[in-house]
Design brief:
86 residues; 36% strand; alpha+beta; globular
Length: 86
């Protein structure tokens, strides 16, 4: 069965915006990591809006790690699974 990456990314991002989501991915060093994270504005820390010269990278997803209280990211190529709260 072939997974459509566009549909997968849409589903994961929807879950992240809805609330806490558990993401499983392979780290750069090859170990597997499970991260409880979100993109839900109500759960994010207050931050100052600043301009960034960084270009968006569609191969990487930035999320807020709810256990470390820090911004983290994972590569979509290393994505394994997710489970969102409904």
């Amino acid at each position: 069965m072939t997974i459509d990456m566009t549909e997968l990314k849409t589903a994961v991002k929807s879950a992240l915006h809805a609330g806490p989501t558990t993401i499983v991915f392979k780290k750069v060093d090859g170990t597997e990591r499970t991260m409880k994270c979100t993109l839900n504005e109500a759960l994010l820390p207050k931050r100052e809006l600043t301009e960034s010269n960084r270009q968006a990278n569609d191969g990487v997803q930035t999320v807020f790690d709810l256990e470390l209280n820090q911004w983290r990211s994972f590569k979509w190529d290393n994505f394994i699974s997710f489970e969102g709260t409904m």
